[in-house]
Design a protein that fits this description.
By secondary structure, the protein is α/β, with parallel strands linked by helices. It has twelve helices and nine strands.
Length: 290
């Protein structure tokens, strides 16, 4: 059996042998608890039929576990200094493809086509906190061919993904995740499970992509435009947020009427509207555009 990467002593040894230093701009925190890694793979339900897209493999701690359970792992790493380390730590696994790329500049559709014959992949990752939301939004809004997303993120971000309307955590990310997925927080992970230790707790969350979006009869582009405007200035009313940011070209009176048709109170804020109410508001505004 190949030596486990995810122990404090082995991680430290790999880092020292390669004179590697952590880069804050890449948000690098390596997992050093093997049980957590096993639990991540279990939460993602990885089998020998699965092709896994891993974002930010680091020194390969999670990659190693995924490689032993999956048919194939495509590991995308932005830090060029980690590529030779990954070739050392997981080079013996013939089912791992390592790519030195920025995931936000990667043609994910072409990658899935070339590496998995266009079949759906499972995304599994210990995501850098600073780009969690852009990555999730890219996968969802661009309709990538993804079956599920199991990611380690900042605990408060995981809570935001699950948040319901009316709560302080509810926002554009909550709506996007729930529109496209069902979401479940699998576990909370303390800072002590990482090297170096982050300042906040983390959580593993699994998003299962819906076969169809939650709202079937809605202009998706307009819907998300309205949602993003609604939360762009959280302290303002929904009316003022839409009037100031949406560039829809409607008067305040027209927007007031659309909001009243959905929720009656034109002084309502965005966080008070459910996903379904945002859908009805979208339909009201689309009628006005015709």
């Amino acid at each position: 059996m190949i030596e486990r990467i995810a122990t404090p002593s082995q991680t430290k040894k790999i880092i020292e042998q390669n004179s590697f230093y952590f880069k804050k701009n890449f948000g690098q925190n390596f997992l050093i608890d093997g049980n957590i890694l096993e639990n991540i793979a279990e939460s993602a339900n990885i089998t020998k039929q699965d092709c896994v897209l891993e974002i930010g493999p680091g020194i390969g701690s999670l990659t190693q576990v995924l490689a032993e359970k999956a048919k194939k792992v495509i590991a995308i790493e932005i830090d060029k200094h980690l590529i030779p380390i990954l070739q050392q730590t997981i080079g013996e696994y013939e089912n791992v493809v390592i790519k030195n790329q920025d995931i936000l500049k990667t043609d994910v559709d072409a990658l899935i086509q070339s590496e998995n014959d266009g079949n759906a992949v499972k995304v599994v990752a210990n995501l850098p906190y600073y780009i969690t939301t852009p990555i999730i939004m890219d996968l969802l809004e661009n309709h990538r061919n993804v079956e599920s997303i199991t990611v380690m993120v900042q605990k408060e971000v995981a809570e935001r993904m699950q948040a319901k309307f009316g709560s302080k955590d509810y926002g554009a990310l909550s709506i996007a995740v729930q529109y496209y997925c069902t979401a479940k927080i699998d576990m909370v992970v303390p800072p002590s499970c990482f090297m170096p230790k982050p300042k906040v707790s983390s959580a593993v969350i699994t998003l299962h992509l819906r076969k169809e979006p939650l709202l079937k009869e809605v202009n998706e582009t307009l819907f998300f435009h309205i949602v993003k405007c609604a939360f762009g200035q959280r302290r303002k009313t929904l009316l003022n947020s839409l009037y100031n940011q949406s560039k829809l070209g409607f008067s305040k009176q027209m927007l007031t009427q659309a909001i009243q048709n959905v929720v009656l109170d034109e002084k309502v804020r965005g966080e008070a509207l459910s996903l379904e109410q945002f859908g009805r508001l979208t339909n009201e505004i689309e009628k006005m555009q015709k």
